[in-house]
Design brief:
The protein is mainly α. Helix content is about 80%, strand content about 0%. About 30% of the residues are buried.
Length: about 300
């Protein structure tokens, strides 16, 4: 009498995927390429085609218009303020969350994710209710001749709010993966807190940090909803590039609108290229971090 039948061997998922029929692979690749072409490549082609429809001279004239130039400058100023603030916050929050245990840690993580859950328009409305003329702090600000809403400070505040998760959310997983061993070794050898940060922690997270800064920068330049609420749409004063594009398009100045939109599209392509490079660097850094641990476990 024969013994019990051997259980069927499980085929790894990667091998099952490799054994899929050729026609299925072709269909899936065609669907993915068609989706990317329809929703990503085609809109970019339309933007640049419409921007240069009347020639290079008309494109340059649209960009050099005083209101357009003011929108470009305001976008750059807002980004130059918001990104460093989020850089400092992201570093501090990531350091606190990954290196220390304290009460309220889960609350801090939840607050970091809050801008992802709240509509940008709602966040802009909150600032209006706080700092507007009829808001909670509006009368006090008016008495001291301080203007936040419909001015540059309000635009900066709204941009900082919608972009502050990006740096922290890139650093937290990276720093958790790296652990605390190197910092503890440096401290045990007599290094101070700043020495440990500058010579151990920062070199280990530099690519992830730059990756988060690039994402934060891209969102800051392209933010529309929150900035639209707090800016007042004052042409030549409180319009960023996205708001100026909307005004031009509503005025049926299509070429100028697409010319300004092409600037954002170009910045987006540059950001995508930098993002891809930094993703590769971060993955390489993680592999270098995990390889010694893997070798120690095998030995």
């Amino acid at each position: 009498m024969s013994g019990p039948a051997a259980p069927p061997r499980r085929v790894p998922a990667a091998r099952r995927a490799a054994d899929d029929p050729l026609w299925l692979k072709i269909v899936l690749i065609a669907i993915a390429c068609g989706f990317i072409g329809l929703f990503l490549v085609l809109p970019l082609v339309v933007v640049f085609t419409e921007a240069f429809r009347d020639g290079v001279a008309a494109y340059v004239r649209s960009v050099r218009e005083p209101a357009a130039w003011q929108a470009i400058k305001l976008t750059l100023i807002t980004t130059a303020i918001a990104v460093p603030l989020n850089l400092v916050f992201g570093l501090a929050a990531s350091w606190a969350i990954t290196k220390f245990e304290f009460r309220g840690k889960s609350v801090l993580i939840t607050l970091i994710d809050l801008p992802f859950a709240v509509s940008p328009v709602i966040s802009g409305l909150i600032y209006v209710l706080l700092f507007g003329m009829q808001g909670w702090l509006g009368p006090w600000l008016s008495r001291h001749n301080i203007q936040i809403i419909f001015a540059v400070p309000g635009i900066v505040l709204a941009t900082v709010f919608v972009t502050f998760p990006f740096v922290a959310r890139e650093l937290i997983p990276l720093m958790q993966e790296q652990g605390k061993d190197e910092e503890q070794a440096a401290i045990s050898l007599g290094a101070g807190g700043w020495q440990t940060f500058w010579r151990v922690t920062l070199p280990n997270i530099k690519w992830g940090l730059l990756y988060g800064v690039i994402l934060c920068n891209a969102r800051a330049m392209g933010e529309f909803g929150a900035v639209s609420v707090v800016s007042g749409h004052i042409r030549g004063k409180t319009n960023t590039i996205p708001l100026h594009v909307e005004i031009l398009y509503n005025e049926y100045n299509v070429v100028a609108a697409f010319a300004m939109a092409s600037l954002l599209a170009f910045l987006g392509l540059v950001t995508l290229a930098a993002k891809s490079f930094l993703e590769w660097k971060v993955q390489q850094q993680l592999r270098e971090t995990l390889e010694p641990t893997t070798m120690e476990s095998l030995s």
